[in-house]
Amino acid sequence: MSNIFECFVGKHCIIRTYSAGVHMGVVKAVGEKSVILQNVKRLWFWKGAFTLNEVATIGIGSGSRVSIEVEEIGLTEVIEYLPTTEKARGTYEKYIE
Q: Could you tell me the residue range of the domain that residue 88 belongs to?
């Protein structure tokens, strides 16, 4: 493995970046500080979870704001990768704007 983040390829993750916000999608490729995601939604605001760790594990609640899905996006300045649970993913669709 040439990049420690390659272990996330193929997994649905929450990605937090330095300046582009928080995105959710399937990791297609990783770089040192970059990622390409597929089937991507942007998380604008969340309720029902205190941290992104909880957003990835238990999901979001009423009052949260999630963007429509786009096919693919490239992001730079990635700060963290958080794999999501099936339970959490089930909540994301409910709050698409």
A: 4-95
* Other CB atoms within 10 Å distance of the CB of residue 38: 16
Per-residue pLDDT of the chain (97 residues; tens, 9 = 90+): 578 999 999 999 999 999 999 999 999 999 999 999 999 999 999 999 999 999 999 999 999 999 999 999 999 999 999 999 999 999 998 888 7
Please report, for the domain that includes residue 13, its CATH number: 2.30.30.100
Domain total in the chain: 1
Answer yes or no: pTM beyond 0.90. yes
The answer to whether 73 and 13 have CB atoms below 8 angstroms apart is: no
CA 48 – CA 79 distance, rounded (Å): 23
